[in-house]
Amino acid sequence: MSESFELNVEIREDMGKGASRRLRRLEGKVPGIIYGAGKEPQTISVIHSEIIKHLEEEAFYSHVLTLNVNGTPESVILKDLQRHPYKPKINHVDFLRIKAGEKLQTTVPLHFLNEETGPGAKAGGVINHTISAVEVSCLPKDLPEFIEVDLGALEMDQVIHLSDLQLPNGVELVELALGEDHDQAVVTIHKGRSAKSDEESSDDSAE
């Protein structure tokens, strides 16, 4: 993890929906909560413009973050966001505390490589991403920003499953721990309509 993210947050005393609305409308802040690691949950607030800026970076979603809680650092991961239904605003944010020696579970994005250079794609195949992120289990020090999926050797009608992914050391997929029937497809490739039409035309002309 090459990047680091820090957020300054304040402990929030006022509770309830009315207090949260005032916080968002009058102070430009987002209500939130920190929980986990055997400690009591702690209600907080964070400046809206500050968290919006961080959310523009993909790595923020799958990084160990440092929250400066009234000046005291806490190691956390972003666990949940509640967004406004139509405005570019955050209504609430949840952070999960972590410990260096304890495994965590969180979602990391998939990065698909060499989509246009594989033999299936060159033959006119249409690639379908059935999932774009996976839930992983690992120690905080092993948490990857993303997991790469190389499609450079993908043949027509081939399927890449979760079990085919190349994982960094110390990282496991939560779904695979649930059993073989959870080994879902990640990427599929099949002939597009134009390729099928060309084949059908060739068959008709051959007759």
UniProtKB/TrEMBL annotation:
InterPro entries: Rbsml_bL25/Gln-tRNA_synth_N, Ribosomal_bL25/Gln-tRNA_synth, Ribosomal_bL25_b-dom, Ribosomal_bL25_C, Ribosomal_bL25_long, Ribosomal_bL25_short, Ribosomal_L25_dom, Ribosomal_uL5_bac-type. Residues 103-191 form the Large ribosomal subunit protein bL25 beta domain. It comes from the Bacteria. The keyword rRNA-binding applies. The keyword Ribonucleoprotein applies. GO terms for cellular component: ribosome. Residues 7-95 form the Large ribosomal subunit protein bL25 L25 domain. Part of the 50S ribosomal subunit; part of the 5S rRNA/L5/L18/L25 subcomplex. Contacts the 5S rRNA. Binds to the 5S rRNA independently of L5 and L18. This is Large ribosomal subunit protein bL25. It comes from Aliikangiella maris.
